[in-house]
Amino acid sequence: MTKAELLEMASSLGIQVPSKATKQEIIDMIKGV
Question: What pTM, to 2 d.p., does this model score?
Answer without folding.
Answer: 0.81
